[in-house]
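Sanity check

After download, print the first record. It should look like this:
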Amino acid sequence: MNQRVFYTLNLAVFTGMLGVGLVIPFMPIYAKTLGATTLSIGVFFASFPLAQLCFMPTISRLSDRHGRKWFISAGLLLCSLLSLWFVYAPNMLYLIIGRFVQGGTMALILPIATAYVGDLAPPNKRGTYMGIFNLFLTCSFGMGPLIGGRVSVLCGIEAGFYLMGALNVVALLAVLLFLPEAHPAQHARAQAVSYGEM
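Expected structure tokens:
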């Protein structure tokens, strides 16, 4: 187990997910400023898991064939660009589209990073390393809203979006500079499963 690679992956995912969690507290307030109704706010929040449902199985299968690093990098890049999309969204429809794309970017990051941990960890220590990975992940989601709420109070809602973008850029640079590609031979040989079977 390469500890440097493992903790680089953990810190990159922690930083990226911290950025995503930052905007959760003020999203309904921001949506109201764009004329949101109760229904459109519901659609906004539902679009995130819907995108994951649509994209996770296919993207995960592709990463088994083509490697992990560039999928994670693409997800972090898209997350950083989405911060600008949210800032300049002119109406609620754009906000919903942005949230749907954000759900898709999580499909590029979370399952692929989890699979990367599986690639790195020795079989008799997989539970240990998955536990550490999930500790970083849940801490980022827990700290994000706390920090984001404070930032929005002190500096305004837009500052939270810019901070989200900056944190994702930091995570992207860490992945590009310090994370090697997982060799395809290390990937689990998963059988293809159709949506119908799932």
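If your output differs, re-run the checksum step. Summary of this record's structure: The chain has seven helices and no strands.
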